[in-house]
């Protein structure tokens, strides 16, 4: 297979972890006789410094023309002023909108080797395998009007939470399809007791559920779901929810595994369009350049890229198995190591995964 992959290293530890994921993809190409062509683009703070904008037109063009996009992370202390006219996160939102990726898939899987890395008791997290599906291009993050103004001498701010039926339907249908191929259970998360947008979300979800009689569908309010993710995480299969709720719940769920450094994600749009793949962690500027960042979330994001955008399921499974094997053998980066346990660096972890392939 020939494929073009756009790399967006971004800021902080982004370049370090993306470099390791690229090496894994190159190893896969060599092993399975594929030809991957890589292009790099600027995004986030690095793009602001170089061009004055968080997502140059040239970068977006590279992304929409590729078969898939692999992103590192954006942001950092240098660009953290909330009053700044241009911020790194604007590049990420513009990228999602420009690529038309409306569904963010975040798998939360606890490997046996890391059950003791979770802050929860091992018996509570062992066997957890949850797919969180987050609507990505609607809701509060994109609603208008949005902004801050002064009225009668007092500062006021407004954000608009708006959803169209079609936005809800397409992401819920995708979640049902995923549930059908897993354990046939879907949990829809909303705040229908308070929000009109959530009541529409629930109505549309129930309409879509009729098309999937083989999938058990339940509704849970977002505050209850936040509790149940800690109390009984293994009960969940597929969770689907709106943009902000998904953002918060998926970060909460990441702690079930013990580290943000272990969790990949895929952002998908209509069939035939390129997907966007990235670790769910941030740019971690405090450890950038130290060679200690965990590259596994980015490597696992590359595995999702192989499966979902390139249709290479065997190759994706090989990467995931290599990661599991390395962890089972005891290799640990600083974020998942127990006190006194030997630690490996970013490049060394990449070396180990490639060797395990």
Automatic annotation (TrEMBL):
Protein name as annotated: 3-isopropylmalate dehydrogenase
Enzyme class of the recorded protein, top EC level: oxidoreductase
Listed GO CC annotations: cytosol
The UniProt record lists the keyword Lipid biosynthesis: no
GO terms, molecular function: 3-isopropylmalate dehydrogenase activity; magnesium ion binding; NAD binding
Binding-site residues, substrate: 96, 106, 134, 223
Entry's Gene Ontology BP terms: L-leucine biosynthetic process
Binding positions (Mg(2+)): 223, 247, 251
SUPFAM superfamilies recorded: Isocitrate/Isopropylmalate dehydrogenase-like
One protein family per Pfam: Iso_dh
Pathway assigned to this chain's UniProt record: Amino-acid biosynthesis; L-leucine biosynthesis; L-leucine from 3-methyl-2-oxobutanoate: step 3/4
Site (Important for catalysis): 141, 191
Function: Catalyzes the oxidation of 3-carboxy-2-hydroxy-4-methylpentanoate (3-isopropylmalate) to 3-carboxy-4-methyl-2-oxopentanoate. The product decarboxylates to 4-methyl-2 oxopentanoate.
Entry cofactors: Mn(2+); Mg(2+)
SMART domains attached to this UniProt entry: Iso_dh (SM01329)
Catalyzed reactions per annotation: (2R,3S)-3-isopropylmalate + NAD(+) = 4-methyl-2-oxopentanoate + CO2 + NADH
UniProt keywords, alphabetically: Amino-acid biosynthesis, Branched-chain amino acid biosynthesis, Cytoplasm, Leucine biosynthesis, Magnesium, Manganese, Metal-binding, NAD, Oxidoreductase
Listed EC numbers: 1.1.1.85
Domain (Isopropylmalate dehydrogenase-like): residue spans on this chain: 4-353
PROSITE patterns: IDH_IMDH (PS00470)
Subunit structure: Homodimer.
UniProt remark on cofactor binding: Binds 1 Mg(2+) or Mn(2+) ion per subunit.
Gene: leuB
């Amino acid at each position: 297979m020939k494929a073009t992959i756009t790399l967006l290293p971004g800021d902080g530890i982004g370049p370090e972890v993306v470099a390791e994921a690229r090496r894994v993809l190159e190893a896969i190409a060599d092993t399975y006789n594929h030809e991957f062509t890589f292009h790099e683009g600027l995004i986030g703070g690095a793009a602001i410094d170089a061009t004055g904008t968080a997502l140059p037109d040239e970068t977006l063009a590279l992304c929409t023309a590729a078969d898939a996009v692999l992103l590192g992370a954006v942001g950092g202390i240098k660009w953290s002023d909330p009053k700044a006219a241009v911020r790194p996160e604007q590049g990420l939102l513009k990228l999602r909108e420009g690529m038309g990726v409306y569904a963010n898939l975040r798998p939360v899987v606890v490997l046996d080797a890391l059950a003791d890395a979770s802050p929860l008791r091992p018996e509570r997290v062992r066997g957890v395998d949850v797919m969180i599906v987050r609507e990505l291009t609607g809701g509060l993050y994109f609603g208008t009007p949005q902004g801050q103004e002064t009225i009668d001498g007092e500062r006021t701010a407004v954000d608009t939470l708006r959803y169209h039926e079609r936005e809800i339907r397409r992401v819920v249908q995708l979640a049902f399809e995923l549930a059908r191929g897993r354990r046939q259970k879907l949990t829809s998360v909303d705040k229908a007791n308070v929000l009109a947008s959530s009541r529409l979300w629930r109505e549309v979800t129930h309409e879509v559920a009729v098309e999937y009689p083989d999938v058990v569908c339940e509704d849970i309010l977002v505050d209850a779901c936040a509790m149940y993710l800690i109390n009984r995480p293994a009960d969940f299969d597929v969770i689907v929810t709106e943009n902000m709720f998904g953002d918060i719940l998926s970060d909460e769920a990441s702690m079930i595994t013990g580290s943000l450094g272990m969790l990949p994600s895929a952002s998908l749009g209509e069939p035939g369009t390129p997907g966007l793949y990235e670790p769910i962690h941030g740019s971690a500027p405090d450890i950038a350049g130290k060679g200690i960042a965990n590259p596994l979330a980015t490597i696992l994001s590359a595995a999702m890229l192989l499966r979902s955008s390139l249709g290479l399921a065997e190759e994706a499974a090989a990467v995931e198995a290599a990661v599991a094997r390395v962890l089972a053998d005891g290799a640990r980066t600083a974020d998942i190591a127990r006190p006194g346990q030997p630690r490996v660096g970013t490049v060394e972890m990449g070396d180990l995964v490639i060797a395990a392939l």
